[in-house]
C-alpha cells in the first residue's frame, strides 16, 4: 500500500484500507476503484490522505494502535460525555455523568492496553475515519499520543490512567465556544481568539466541581496550553508550576492539531509536526519529553514516499522502534530510473543517508 494525498488521487485508484464514519460503518470498502465523484466527496469531508493498492508495495502494512471497536466506542463515549456536560444546568450534581465517567475510565484502560501491546511506533494515518465534529476525534488522538508518551517516560499504570482520563476531557471547555468560531475557516478576530482561549478555564471550572472527576483531570483542561517559558495561557505559568500531565498533553495536543485536517488548513505530515515540536524544545516544551515523544511516533509512516539525500526514491516499508526517523525504505527508483527489482535499506544502519523530501503524489497511479 502507498500513502497518497486525496488531492493526487485519480479515477481507478483502488483503496487498500476502508474508510469509516464515526459509527464504525464502512463508507468505502477496501479494493474499491475510486471515481472522480468519490474523490471529490473525500476531499469535501476532510479526508487528507488515503492508502491505495500498489503491486510493488502490496505487502506493506500500516497498523492502527487501537482496534476499530475501541476507537468507535471511545469517540462515542467522548461525545456522550461532552453532550452531558453541555446539556445539564447542574452538571456537578448530575448522576448521569457518574455512569458516563465510569465508562470513560474503562475506555482509557482499553486504549492503554492496546497502545502498550502495539509493537510499532504510533501512526494514526492508518485510521481513515470521518467525523462530524473534530473535537471528539482530536480528544481521542491526544489520549493515544499522551499514553504512548507517558509509557515511554515510564509512568506507572495508575498515573497513566489519570493522564488518559485528563486527556479525554482536556478540551471539554470547548462545548461553551460558539461552533461558528470553532469551525471558522478564516482568520479569527481578537475577540474570537479570546473566546477560544477561554475554553481552558471553562473546562477547569466545570470539572473541578464534579466530585467523581479527579482534580488532575481538571488541571489537564486548565493547563494544556501553558508553556515552559510562560508564554502560554490562561495564567502564563512557567515550567515549575505546570503539572506533569499538562506538559505531556501540551505536546500531544499540538502534534495532533498540526497533523490533522482543519477547516482553515490541510494536515501536515508527522515529520513536519515533529519539527514544530523540536523548534519549541526547551522553551515551550520539555526537551526530554520531546525526545521521548520522538521515539513514540512514526516520523515517516509506512507507505509514505520518501526521497533520500543520495537521490534514491522509495516507500517506507517498516519502522525501527525508538528511531522513528530512520525507517526501512524500499527503493523503487535510482538515478532517475524506475527499478525492475526493488531492494530495501535500513536507515538505522545506513547512517550516511537521510530523508530530504516526502511526497504524497510520487508514484501515484495516473498522477
TrEMBL record:
One of its GO terms (molecular function) is kinase activity. PANTHER family: CYCLIC DI-GMP PHOSPHODIESTERASE PA4108 (PTHR43155:SF2), CYCLIC DI-GMP PHOSPHODIESTERASE PA4108-RELATED (PTHR43155). It comes from Pontibacillus marinus BH030004 = DSM 16465. This is Hisitidine kinase. Residues 113-309 form the HD-GYP domain. Keywords: Kinase, Transferase. It comes from the Bacteria. Pfam families: HD_5. The keyword Membrane does not apply.
